[in-house]
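lol ok so funny story. i was supposed to be doing the assay writeup but got distracted and ended up predicting the structure for this chain instead. priorities right. anyway since i did it might as well share w the group, maybe its usefull for someone
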Amino acid sequence: LLEAAFDKGAGQQDQGGPVHEGSGFSRQVALEKGRGIDRVGEDGLEVGIVRLGGQVSVEHKATVNNAAGKCKGTFQSPPADTDLIPCHTPFLPCRQRLPAVELDIILKTCITPFTYRMTPLFFRLDASPKMGLGHLRRCCVLARACREKEAVAHFFIRSEALDLSTQDFPMDAVIHEIPWNSTPEEDAAQTVALCHQNGIRAGVVDHYRVSEPAQKILNEGGLRWMQFGNRLHTHPLLGALVHDANPGATIEDYRGRIHGHEPEFLTGPGYALVAEDFVTERARLSLPDPQEITSILLTFGGGDDRGATLAALDWLEAAGYFGKRLLLTTSMNPQLPALKERAATTQEIELHVDNWHPAPLMAQCQLALCAGGTSLHELACLGVPPVIVCIADNQFFPAQSWHEAGMAINLGPSPEIQPQEAVRHLQRLLSLPEERMALARRCWQAQDGQGAARVAEALLRQVDQQ
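and the output, tada:
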């Protein structure tokens, strides 16, 4: 019975990608009273049932493509006159046949959408080569933190010219597509409809089409959500949470955009959405001491870098630095052919493409030239001082706040940067280790990498409050 069920499940799920709507299993477990823990397979499904007083706890684990997943559920004991305990919990379908074993418990498996058994949250975002992957990356970080707290992510994605199967979604993520040409109001109506279909009451809105009419549609649909603050924007803030992790951010920056009920504000670097890889890497490091520069990182987002990487290479050479330069980019960057050509001229330039877990690479560096997005918090977590080049309008205020906090050097918007000014700043940083040290220490002290867990707690409180 198990072999047939798992074979059917493996056929339903795409190889290697995230789980799409409607796939997955739940099961009913019939427990013979008094039994302890039973297991099935070493690399497949592991089921444990333990009686705890008046309750029964059910725990299972599964490994798919070497990625371990774990879910737990606790269920009330049945009436004394029954031997069956109905347990519905999500698990990952295995892609191999399980060995034939004798079971002390009876497993009856049936096909149902497993995602309804955990707290569902929505993540509405946009992504494309032109706008980059910053919104997708930070939503994935938050979704993984929510998963640690028994929640499952439904991604509502409006994308253009982007292969979603190559992205690093969290385990169990459910993907729904929003048409690229939909209006903001149509977009909001589709978000409400998808939430109602999937029993979702709260989530995240991470895109720039959050007009007042669109937000009212979300409110009228009974949803609570978190949105990201940016001082460049002027639309009202009608969500339950407002997130701004930039240094010095306060509620006063948004006072004029609050209409009606005042949202809860999550402000400052302590709420930055930094991936768990960086927290792990940070634990291996000590307080930064960048006396000698052995490597410099250059990274300008997941899409079009608008020529910033090539310009930064020129500035570094003009400043007299010809050492190791690590270029971090993606296959969506239209400048990639030119970067490959530049990297071929010297062994001191390393080109890294589509590295979705770059923390160990970034930790090797003592200085970075980067855009004004999520990379700033990742670098700060590792104690790497950043020099910021803004390649998009929405990066201007964050970059300025980092500069004013003494945690970065902001060169300004890319088209407005004078090469001689950029070279002068770099020469100063390269020649003054004490200045690099001061930047690095402020970054290290401000960013502990625990922001995703804090935001996940706040987001899940919205479900409880509703």
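Residues 1-116 have pLDDT under 50 and may be disordered. The first strand starts at residue 25 and ends at 30.
back to the writeup now i swear
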